[in-house]
Amino acid sequence: MTTSFLQFTEEKLGQAEKTELDAHFENLLARADCTKNWTEKILRQTEVLLQPNPSARVEEFLYEKLDRKVPSRVTNGELLAQYMTEAANDFGPGTPYGKTLIKVGETQRRLGAAERDFIHSASINFLTPLRNFLEGDWRTISKERRILQNRRLDLDACKARLKKAKAAEAKAACEGDAVPDFQETRPRNYVLSASASALWSDEVEKAEHELRLTQTEFDRQAEVTRLLLEGISSTHVNHLRCLHEFVESQTNYYAQCYQYMLDLQKQLGSSKGEIFSGTFVGNAESTSPPPAATSPPAVAAATLPAVPTIPVVPTIVGVPNTVAESVLNPNEVKPPASGTRKARVLYDYEAADSTELALLADEMITVYSLPGMDPDWLIGERGNQKGKVPVTYLELLS
């Protein structure tokens, strides 16, 4: 170890030669380092994606290191669902606002459950393989690389020792070949030179023997390390499969969320006419219409050609209102002489009652507005069928 440390120090100071690995081996080393670095970054950022709360990530990490089961944690969607349900119970589950809170809360609960399933699937199928590589295969590779580095230092130290021994042997040989001067004050120098030459010859033989052994150990360790580094290709194949599984899990998760929101939108669209048809105008508390879902693009009814408006009288219980009745019974009204337009249906829609028209995605219908109608609704016609349709499900054409 002392020899290796001395060799390492002299290399850093530029006072010793270093055995260079071949280009293929160096490429394998660079590829392994690149794989390790990017795997760490992808792993960490995926953890942030699945769990944005840093405190929660630290807690999960500690439980993992202690080999204990991570306690179940309520998702944000499930917590929101709980708040909405409790609010509905306080406001009255039979009120329009309470009913809507319950519907939205149930959807949020389903979204939270879907998120939990996605996190669990992504953790098992994607994060675990990446973590196993860093904590298993990469640690083995790093250990063998350190051993190879020590073998290389030992090899270079043996080379330096042999080189010095040969230089000393050559110098002693030159001094031994010189003609001795017996008149000199110390005639024993000739004998000492011959003896030193023999000693250095033995030293050269020992250095050569050690060099052969060290070279064999270095070559063996280099082969072991090379095989491990070439295994990085298999690691890439495994991570590629895990990546496909991650994308599939994410696709299923977003598809579930999209379907849940479409179902919620249909429920809210079906009840919108009941809530805002005018039956609650006399209430002391006014209720604002719920915003349209973000999926279908909102199209303002004002884009239709203008039709002369008629003042609308609020509906009062027990007092008939001919305008409101005509709006609620579209089968009895006639389209205006001008102002009709074509529209393409964006999403399927199920009619809530006989006053509405069921829609199929991508079909073409004729639409128009009547005086006093809710701006979120239009009258739609398909052949002999007629009924109210929600504007958010349509794409108005010129």
From TrEMBL:
InterPro entries: AH/BAR_dom_sf (IPR027267), BAR_dom (IPR004148), Endophilin_SH3RF (IPR050384), SH3-like_dom_sf (IPR036028), SH3_domain (IPR001452), SH3GLB_SH3 (IPR028503). Residues 10-277 form the BAR domain. Keywords: Apoptosis, Coiled coil, Cytoplasm, Golgi apparatus, Membrane, Mitochondrion, Mitochondrion outer membrane, SH3 domain. It is a peripheral membrane protein. One of its GO terms (biological process) is membrane organization. One of its GO terms (cellular component) is mitochondrial outer membrane. Residues 338-398 form the SH3 domain. It comes from the Eukaryota. It is found in: Cytoplasm; Golgi apparatus membrane; Mitochondrion outer membrane. SUPFAM superfamilies: BAR/IMD domain-like, SH3-domain. CDD domains: BAR_Endophilin_B2 (cd07617), SH3_Endophilin_B1 (cd11945). Belongs to the endophilin family. Homodimer, and heterodimer with SH3GLB1. PANTHER family: DREBRIN-LIKE PROTEIN-RELATED, SH3 DOMAIN-CONTAINING. This is Endophilin-B1.
